[in-house]
Amino acid sequence: MDTQSRWCTLLRRASRGGVLALAMAGATLAVAESPREAVERALQVFADGDVVQAMQILQPVAEAGDPLAQVRLAYIFDQSRLYEPALRWYREAAEAGNAEAAVGLATLIAAGEGTEADPVEAGRWMRRAAEADHARANLAMAAAYERGGLGLEADPADALEWYRRAAELGSREARQRLARAYTDGDLGLAPDPQAAARWAESAGANQ
């Protein structure tokens, strides 16, 4: 069993038995530690491979209402395939305006992980993140409008608008898609080799 599988098994057993909840309830912040410092410490502990300790650090900060701690805790649950608590914390952070949490929430809802799949609700959360200038959310909205998804019908003009927004926010994938669109003359565009070259160069510079 690899390391990731062992951690997933440990977290599942702890969650079922209530051991993890008890451990988290007793976790406290270090003296004079700010929420941001606690989150940074938890991420370092997580990077070092101690998932449970990272969660013990994050839990009280998340319970106190810190969106950054909530989204990081959600991510750990998400990566551990514990989708119901991941949904809870993504949702709390997203409702507080955290765009990264809105993307995580939308992704789980779209896939039906931890809840019934609901593409329309997923689309609402992804749009909220995109309108907050989250690059990956803008790319997801563009793809949804290009192919149909997230409760949206395909619309090349809207897809083009979202690809441009994502590109302006630094998305390499969006810049590559715009280069192809100008090369092939799709998404409602006329072929434009110069524009295609500019976007291709921009995508290369963004590596």
Topology:
Blueprint: H1 3-17, H2 19-25, H3 35-47, H4 51-63, H5 67-79, H6 83-95, H7 99-111, H8 119-131, H9 135-147, H10 156-168, H11 172-184, H12 193-205
Compute the CA-based radius of gyration: 20 Å
Indicate the structural class: mainly alpha
Number of β-strand runs: 0
Helix content: over 70%
Summarize the structure in words.
- The chain has 207 residues and is mostly helical.
- The protein is built from twelve helices and no strands.
- It has helices at residues 3-17, 19-25, 35-47, 51-63, 67-79, 83-95, 99-111, 119-131, 135-147, 156-168, 172-184, 193-205.
- Helix 5 runs antiparallel to helix 6 and helix 8 packs across helix 9.
- The longest helix has 15 residues, at 3-17.
- The chain is elongated.
- Residues 14-30 have low confidence and may be disordered.
In short:
With 207 residues, the protein is an all-alpha fold. The protein is built from 12 helices and no strands. Helix 5 (67-79) runs antiparallel to helix 6.
Question: What tags apply to this protein structure?
Answer:
207 residues, mainly alpha, 12 helices, elongated
